[in-house]
Amino acid sequence: MAIPKPRPVPLIIAAVSLAMLLVSGYLLASRVRDYNQRSVNHLYAYIEVVNPTFEFMGREIRVTDEHDEALGHIIRVRYGQDEITIPVSIEARRNIPGGVFNQNADWMRMLFCADRAGLTREEFEARMARDEIDTRLVIVTRTPFGLAPRKDGVFGLEQERNESTADVRRDQWRFDFYELLPDGGFEVQTSLRFPESGASLLRRQNNAKLKGEPIPQRDPGELQERTWQYGAALKVMPRPPAITFENQALRAAGWTLPVCSASVLGLMFGIFFAFAPARVRA
Q1: Is the torsion defined by CA of 251, 254, 255, 256 positive or negative?
Q2: How far lies 222's CA from each of 62, 148, 217, in Å?
Q3: CB neighbourhood size of 264 (10 A)
Q4: Is there a domain that residue 16 lies in?
Q5: Which of 71, 98, 150, 178 is deepest in the core (most CB within 10 A)?
């Protein structure tokens, strides 16, 4: 079967679209790269602790799962001469081998955290081995129904609190952080909230604009993207939060994104119509 002779007009459209695609694609990639270089100041890496007994900064650490008559089921963390107790927020339904961390992995993790921005994986691991990078040691916990809901239920109905709704009502999750300080003792940061999705925030902002009300902003008590707390909290979530719109590199794309998309369509249709077989006439 002979290849049909290309039609000149669609072929010109395809050629112009290809040129626009190359130019806009290059500018789009440049804008995204520049945005990331300006905005991504921290990139955290995490190493999960699996041994409940070890040393940190010359002090012994011991993590135990206990039942206290006054406090109930708790996790006790001893750090040198200091100790802290953490109430168990999700009871395991069966005994899980592997120690205290495996038993409570649904809601608690102990993590080493360090900033590796500007370093390759090999450079980061080498500097970690030489103890040249400041490292945090933190415990992160998640408490279902730990906070009041963002908004009232439909028709004022309250959902039953059980394992299923505990996973669904992410707006009521509470995240607490216990940092073991290099000089001893603990620093506790409590009651950070699961981040609101970008779609939900945009919907609230649009509704406020229509009503002439002040534009709502994010709750300062939320987990903030690109912080060590955000990355640590991901370790105890059944599923991660949706991305937000405010911190996405494509927001810096400007006109290059729609032009690049239109160029792809123009290129596809131009090639299709340029080489489409001629209409068969009766």
Answers
A1: negative
A2: 30, 13, 11
A3: 15
A4: no
A5: 178
Is residue 49 assigned to a domain?
A: yes
179-190 per-position pLDDT tens digit: 999 999 999 998
pLDDT (tens digit, 9 = 90+) per residue, 251-265?
788 889 899 999 999
Q: What is the pTM of this model?
A: 0.76
- The CA distance from 105 to 237, in Å, is 10
User: What domain count does the chain have?
Assistant: 1
Report which of 151, 140, 153, 150 is spatially closest to residue 89, judged by C-alpha positions: 140
88 belongs to a structural domain: yes
CA distance 116 to 122: 11
Could you give the strand order of the β-sheet that contains 108-115, starting from the edge strand earlier in sequence? 44-48, 108-115, 135-143, 174-180, 186-193
Domain span at residue 124 reads: 44-194
Residue type, 71: L
